[in-house]
Amino acid sequence: MSETVTKKMMLYFPKCEVETPIIYYLVKDHDLMVNVFRAKVTPEEEGYLVLDVTGTEEDIKKGMDFVKTFGVTINYTNKGVIRKENRCTHCGVCITFCPTKALQITNMATREVVYNSDDCIECLACTRVCPFNACVSTF
Ligand code: SF4
Ligand code: SF4
Q: Which domain holds residue 104?
């Protein structure tokens, strides 16, 4: 039996496909497990999904080939949150709101607020509280 892997990705749906139950077909027809972290439909009625897909490499590839037939763009690397270092004043406001310690002070001497994207679950809390727009949603 082939080994299963989990891949994180962001799907962008054009306006005409937002209603299509693509996730349902990924699970039913492609043997994939899908864990949706975040979903959003923009005012322009385009859709974004951030999700984990678990299955064999082959099934994931087939599933994503299927998704692409709907004109969906797949981004395997983009994060739903980015930190604009040049805007950060290291005020520390975001730290207490970050549930995973993706934002934290690691050096008490400099008190610099460090962002670790690997620990970020894209809850968007920091984007709401940062007074300087240093944490920004890409959605
Ligand atoms: S709240 Fe914004 S400016 Fe303050 S430390 Fe966090 S990211 Fe930097
Ligand atoms: S999006 Fe959430 S998890 Fe990620 S850095 Fe901001 S507060 Fe932390």
A: 81-137
